[in-house]
Structure formats: structure tokens, C-alpha cells
Write a structure and sequence with these properties.
Strands 2-1-5 form a three-stranded antiparallel beta sheet, covered by helices on one side. The chain is built from one helix and five strands; from the N terminus they run ββαβββ. Helix content is 17%, strand content 35%. The radius of gyration is 14 Å and the shape is elongated.
Amino acid sequence: MEVKIGVQNAPREIVLESPQTADEVEGAIAKALEGTTKLLVLADEHGRRIIVPAERLAYVEIGEQAARKVGFGTL
């Protein structure tokens, strides 16, 4: 699942591939924004954790899981 996170006062967005489902990511965002937790914590597919303060979130874009192409194909 591709997730793009916009952070206030940051020139670039954070882009990660997460093994979490769209519902799990949305739930983590909702908890962070409602004040249950003050941090948005997501894990990427390499086991790294991305932590963003909820008060600094500008936007979060949840995309579809992209299928990776393997091998040689015709263009």
C-alpha cells in the first residue's frame, strides 16, 4: 500500500510502501487526529517505522497497492 504524507513546513512529502491495509492506515490517522495518540506511526515494508507528530500533518494520501513488474516485456 503506497502512503504519501504531507508535513507542514516541509518541502517534500514522505512516501512509503506499507504492508498495512488501507483501513489500518486510516484508523491510525483517525486516532492521531482525534487526539487519542499525538503521533502518527506507520511501518514500511522493510520494518522501519515512520513517526510524524499529528499536529504537523498537512495531508495523507492512501493509494492502491502497486503490482511490481518483473522481467522483460514489450513496450
